[in-house]
Amino acid sequence: MVIPVLETLDITGKTITADALLTQRKLAEYLRARDAHDVFTVKDNQPNLHADLRLFFEKDRGQPDFREPPTPGHGRIESRAIWTSERLNEYLDFPGVGQAFLIERHTVEKKTGKTSTETVYGVTSHTRDTADAARVLGLNRGHWTIENGCHYSLDWNWDEDRCTIRTGHGPANITALRRFAIGVIKAKSRDTVSATIPRLARNLRLVFDYLRMTENSRRRPPVRLAPAG
């Protein structure tokens, strides 16, 4: 559970974001007791809450409260829109709801023109006085920025989500080594991590160069030329 980790941090006035796995009453109550805010994604692991949000927002919800302009990146163009409501605050059986929200993400693949739409439901302890629709959307996106920047890199390059190392300190050790490798690559390579890893796999000498374990990779003192004459 994440609560033991939060116990070591000063979270007063902070906003804690969580994906559906951590959308739990106990965590929401804990955050309110610590004077912190939350932004939770709601999925089928909270079936009643998810059903209530889906039923409410599936009705005529009108125009979104905020819409981001299309953003290109990673071979696709994405646009996001968010609808928020305080009308469910007293109805939903979940602690400290300040707003309910629906986020709709529309994606167009540049090469194929294929389109897709993803719908995400959620709740936050923020009221509209402390977080308008644009900020709620930004908080939700910020959560996945961490996911994409850290965990996504591990999973994409080493398929970590399907790693079969399970016993003892093995999972923590292999993750630490992979993070170390990513850090070294980012510091040394001018290319992306995913492009550099195959090159290192084909050239073991280059790995030692990266780790400064070869003569060519060691720093040498600058050569001082004697003055002429």
From TrEMBL:
GO molecular function list: DNA binding; transposase activity
Pfam families from the UniProt entry: DDE_Tnp_1 (PF01609)
Stored PANTHER family: H REPEAT-ASSOCIATED PREDICTED TRANSPOSASE (PTHR30298), PROTEIN YBFL-RELATED (PTHR30298:SF0)
InterPro entries: ISAs1_transpos, Transposase_11, Transposase_11-like
One GO term (biological process): DNA transposition
Residue span(s) of domain Transposase IS4-like: 3-168
Name the UniProt record assigns to this protein: DDE family transposase
Lineage: Bacteria, Pseudomonadati, Pseudomonadota, Gammaproteobacteria, Chromatiales
